[in-house]
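Morning run. Coffee first, then this:
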Amino acid sequence: MRKQVSVRREGVTGCLNCTIDVFVDLPSTQRGSHLSRNLEVIEEVLESSTSAPVTGLEVLSADICRGLLEKHGYASYAEANIQADYFLDRKNPSGRTTREIFKLVAKASAYRGNGMKKLIGAQAIGMTACPCAMETVREQIKGNVHLENEFPVISHNQRNISTLMVEVPEQYDVEANDLIEILEESFSSPTYEILKRSDEAAVVIRAHTNPKFVEDVVRDILTKVLQKYPSLPNDVIVTARSESQESIHKHNAFAERVTTLEELRDRSLQEGVDLGSRGGCS
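And here it is:
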């Protein structure tokens, strides 16, 4: 279903256009689900949110899950997934405020009598500059004094789409804006809708002085998650996903890691905060 949802965070109420998917399981003795009950649950939860806006899409997902288990007495499992476009003010390199688009992802899953898990995630679009091509260019111009003194060395660029999702027990909250900050800090450079010529130069220079493989983006996301959330429990599940849309290849490059905070913390103790050596490409 597609619905408008009122969300109130940090004293500000906004309206999000959401796509909502809901699921329940069936016992082997039952042929089908009562689908109208799913729609009733969504409408009832949304109706209550008009008078008291929800504090997050993951909270709305959890409320829907509870309603699903209540309506479907035969079900042992319920799940609600929500996606929404989300706009956030950003300042481009010259300091001009632009309203940039992101995507929010929320999910709740509940086993009857066994608690609730909720997930909040965000997707952002940025830019990466390929360090492999950069190294090749550096080798090609070696010995040319004029070109060697030019900085930074050129490379090809990619539009990068990265997603970060954090699944926590119901009593914990994660702020989506913080996830967006982590994503944007993990690109070679953020990107913007409005760029004057000086802004374009600033973005390109930043990206080329910070070249990254798609694997590097995932590593940096996970490192920043570890630094941002020292108090979350060990069993929190973190998904970091990144895709670079290649500019000189027909294919794209993709990297993903699904892990727990416990695994990340153990790894950081072994190797320091950097969660892995840098990758390569061919």
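The chain has a mean pLDDT of 90. Good start to the day.
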